Amino acid sequence: MVRSEWRRWGVLCLIVTGIVFLAACGSAQDTEHQEHSGDHKSMEQQTENVKVDLMTNPTTIQVEKTVEIHAMISQKGKPVNDADKVRFEIWPKGDDDKKESLKTKRMGDGMYVAEKTFKQTGEYEVMYHVTARGGHVMDSQTITVRP
Predict the structure, then answer these.
(1) Do 40 and 72 reside in the same domain of the chain?
(2) Using one digit for the tens of pLDDT, what is the confidence trace for 99-139?
(3) CB atoms closer than 10 angstroms to residue 108
(4) How far is the C-alpha of 43 from the C-alpha of 133, rounded, in Å?
(5) What element of type H or E holds 15?
(6) Helices (H), 79-145
(7) Could you tell me if 37 and 68 lie in one domain?
(8) Per-position b or e across 38-75, b if 16+ CB within 10 A of its CB
């Protein structure tokens, strides 16, 4: 009888140990999932509120005159001077096959600038691509080139 009692306790201990082990593994996976979700949220928070103001100098753009295209980048009212990459894509409106990519120069105080001389009048799309603080922000704006 002593042997069967030990056997019962042994089986019971194995079952309890198995249950505890499985519960611990499930808990570790939940924690890992929460940590990765937290990483994703913190990445979103890093790029959250990144604001890009696109402007030109001069504001009236003329054919065969050099224009500066500015991207003023800020987050929560403070300049973003640590963007990993800022570039512009420019193309005649309605003609996506003629996209041209322009690299920018960091000027400080959140300002990034590229220069362009337009050869023809018309409307152009200017799209900025900003990679900063773990994320990517992009949008476009239409500009008009006058004679």
Answers:
(1) no
(2) 999 999 999 999 999 999 999 999 999 999 999 988 899 99
(3) 8
(4) 8
(5) helix 2-47
(6) none
(7) no
(8) eeeeeeeeebeebebebeeeeeebeeeeebebbbbbeb
**DSSP string over 51-66:** EEEEEEESSSEETTSE
For residue 37, the one-letter residue type is S
Question: pTM for this structure?
Answer: 0.68
Residue 2, domain extent: 1-47
Q: Are residues 90 and 137 in the same domain?
A: yes
Tell me the CB-side half-sphere exposure of residue 137, using CA atoms within 13 A. Answer: 24
Which three-class secondary structure state does DSSP give residue 76?
Answer: coil
Q: Which residues contact 43 (CB under 8 A, 6 or more apart)?
A: 134, 135
The per-residue pLDDT for 92 is: 97
Q: Give the number of domains in the chain.
A: 2
Q: Which tens digits make up the pLDDT trace of 11-46?
A: 665 676 667 666 665 555 555 555 555 554 444 555
